[in-house]
Amino acid sequence: xxxHHVDARIRRSRAALETALRExxxxxxxxxxxxxxxxxxxxxxxxxxxxxYSDVHELAAAxxxxxxxxxxxxxxxxxxxxxxxxxxxxxxxAGVFAHVAEHAALYRAVLGRDGSARxxxxxxxxxxxxVHVSRGPAEALPSTHADDPEAIPHDPAAAFVAGALLGTVLxxxxxxxxxTPEQIGAALWPQLLAGAEAATGTYDEAAAPGPGAAAS
Length: 216
Prior knowledge:
Layout lengths: L2 H23 L9 H8 L3 H7 L3 H19 L18 H10 L1 H8 L5 H18 L21 H19 L6 H22 L14
Helix pairs in contact: 1-2, 1-4, 4-6, 4-7, 5-9, 7-8, 8-9
């Protein structure tokens, strides 16, 4: 069978399993879901499931990361993630929190107390990369984040924004997503901008002490 047919079949199987997981987790908790529940909903066999995932938790992690990656990839990469040249960018956070609220059951299962550190690290890195790209030269900005690089240079401001945003998402989920996405986005956005500006303006990597420097 040609390789592109195999790849298409793999993508279809994974997409069907991830879609089934997202539908089922809205109906009951992750710990209550079995492989049989998911394969029946997806219309695939158990052997197909185990070709791609070792258990339900691995599938949930994959569903979460692919869904979040899709959200970030489709986001505009224009000058609104961080301020440049004195401009005041629009607030994109309402859309992020609306997405989290819509899929709260999955995010809560994967990012909660018993969640996956691998997924959390993936989301942190993905947001940091997107922020770093958006802080690049305006004339070189792509239209979206679909073609962002897999890695970036050391960028403390991007790391700060990623950590603050994901930390707020986790706290919001833990408290049951109070308020509206617009309210939480409006409350967080000025803080992110101020913190990112401070990180950009005060950090000098060349002058920063190395990991072996002794505290004074």
